Amino acid sequence: MSAAVAPAPSSLRPSLVALGAVTSVEFLENGMVMFSASQIMTGLHLSAADFAFAYTLYGMAAIVMLCKHQWMVERLGYERFVMLSLAVFGAGSLLCASASGLGLFAAGRLLQGLGGATFFTAGRLAINELPAESRFAGLFAFVGSLLGGSALAPLLAASLLGAGGWRAIFAFGLPQVLLVAWLARGRLSRAVTPPALRSEEHWGWLIWLCLAVFCLQYAIQAVSLAGSQPRSVALTALVSIAMLTAFAWRQWRKDRPLIDYRGLFQFRYLFGLAMYFFGYFLIGVAGLMLPVLLHGVLGLSLLATALISTCGLAGTVAMALAHLALARRWPWHRFYMMSGLALYAAGCLMLALMDPPAGWVGLLPATLLIYVAIPLFLGPVAFGTFSGLEARVFSHGYQVKNIVRQLGLSSSIALTTLLLHLLEHEPARLGLLQGASELIVDTAVQAPVMLVASQQIFALMLLAIIPVGLVVMLQRVFR
What kind of membrane protein is this, topologically (predicted)? Predict the structure, then answer.
């Protein structure tokens, strides 16, 4: 690995540290929140619907800010925008830490979404500001920090829960943003765009966008809630899609839109977005189901669950960095994508057929396979999706990609929660889906209901990977 990446010059290292620190903020905080969800709900006396509402506000704020990202950067410059976002994120963390009910908690999560949406895109685009010969080192810092933050999140969350309860999860955000602000100060671009070249949009249409995104996020989250009305959810989703279509059509016709869809309308980029959605869907399922198995089914402590999750995610970091080095010399994108899907499918098969008496040790091989599979699949997608975009629309393309990331994660968590509930409480309603999973899992064997439900979800994921694998194998876009 050391031979693949030249040591960064001492003058460049502070910029790489700043890039990595900014990128890690959202991944670390969101990883801790998802790991601590049950403790947060218990501490605040929130129902699943309440927690989903707060998550919906976070998603809405994040997507709207991603749409507005370039607009803000053009007027503030990256350094001011990141510092402002850190302040908003810190204020949201403070509200969440001091909340005693849904109101303050939901407001805090909304502010965290407004601030946190900035960091991933800002970190990636900061790479383009580096000297050309240093951009590969910047890419290593970017990937290592985002995955490193995700890997550290479970262990840090378990430690904070033990030390100060659920409030410590959010109180940690205050020293975190202060440290990141100190590291990033003076290391990001302060350039602003001349007024004549700035993107334009009326604030009334931004409110329209907020409402449309809220409806879409609400519909996605409502799918996972017991008692939700399918017709009402479907109607909400259709209304949101119609509103978003109107917004996109307006953007298409503008000379200086918030997002230049005309420059993004090419098959390579659209195919990459579809692969991104599926990749983040896989991440969401793994992130939700593996702690359920370890803590909920096998009864491991939160600390033990966090240690296993962190070890698995450390494998993700190692594989991602290894893929970066290998792909630079051997850019066999289709081979890496197929390898990632095959490893994820093998992990799903092992978990679908797992034997509970084997204990948590028996889950380690499957867990490691799933965690190392994800960067093998998403790495080539990241390499290939943006390679055909012109420089003038690159930032627009990355904004849209991060919106797709948010939707993929939201959809996977909502659908997996719904399937878990139905398989556990109302298996008769699943019909063909349950029958398909039973091709792999023998549910006639007596086992805890939660275990059987988990096994069937992994079996369904295995079946879902098959058609995507065929598409990847036959496609000629990422070769």
Answer: Multi-pass membrane protein
Assess whether 87 and 220 both reside in one domain: no
Give yes or no: residues 343 and 326 share one domain.
yes
Average pLDDT over every residue of 157-168: 89
HEC string of the chain equals: CCCCCCCCCCCCHHHHHHHHHHHHHHHHHHHHHHHCHHHHHHHHCCCHHHHHHHHHHHHHHHHHHHHHHHHHHHHHCHHHHHHHHHHHHHHHHHHHHHCCCHHHHHHHHHHHHHHHHHHHHHHHHHHHHCCHHHHHHHHHHHHHHHHHHHHHHHHHHHHHHHHHCHHHHHHCHHHHHHHHHHHHCCCCCCCCCCHHHCCCCCHHHHHHHHHHHHHHHHHHHHCCCCCCCHHHHHHHHHHHHHHHHHHHHHHHHCCCCCCCHHHHCCHHHHHHHHHHHHHHHHHHHHHHHHHHHHHHHCCCCHHHHHHHHHHHHHHHHHHHHHHHHHHHHCCCHHHHHHHHHHHHHHHHHHHHCCCHHHCHHHHHHHHHHHHHHHHHHHHHHHHHHCCCCCHHHHHHHHHHHHHHHHHHHHHHHHHHHHHHHHHHHCHHHHCHHHHHHHCCCCCCCCCCHHHHHHHHHHHHHHHHHHHHHHHHHHCCCCC
Whether residue 3 is contained in a domain is answered as: no
Residues 167 and 77 in one domain: yes
Domain match, 99 and 25 both: yes
Specify the CATH number for the domain of residue 42: 1.20.1250.20
Q: Is residue 266 domain-shared with residue 390, that is, in the same domain?
A: yes
Does the pTM of the predicted model rise above 0.85? no
Buried b (16+ CB within 10 A) or exposed e, 333-363: bbebbbbbbbbbbbbbbbbbebeeeeebebb
pLDDT one-digit tens code per residue, 26-35: 888 888 888 8
38 to each of 123, 125, 310, how far by Cα in Å? 31, 35, 19
Domain count, the chain: 3
In a domain, 378, yes or no: yes
Q: What is the pLDDT of residue 425?
A: 63
Q: For the beta carbon of residue 470, count every other beta carbon within 10 angstroms.
A: 11
- Between 195 and 280, name the one with better pLDDT: 280
4 falls within a domain: no
- For the chain, the distance separating the N- and C-terminal CA atoms, rounded to the nearest angstrom, is 24
Last residue of a domain, one of 187, 209, 237: 187
Lowest mean pLDDT among 12-26, 121-135, 272-286, 339-353: 121-135
∠ CA 164-165-166, rounded to 5°: 125
Cβ distance 37 to 358 under 8 Å? no
* Residues of the domain holding 91: 9-187
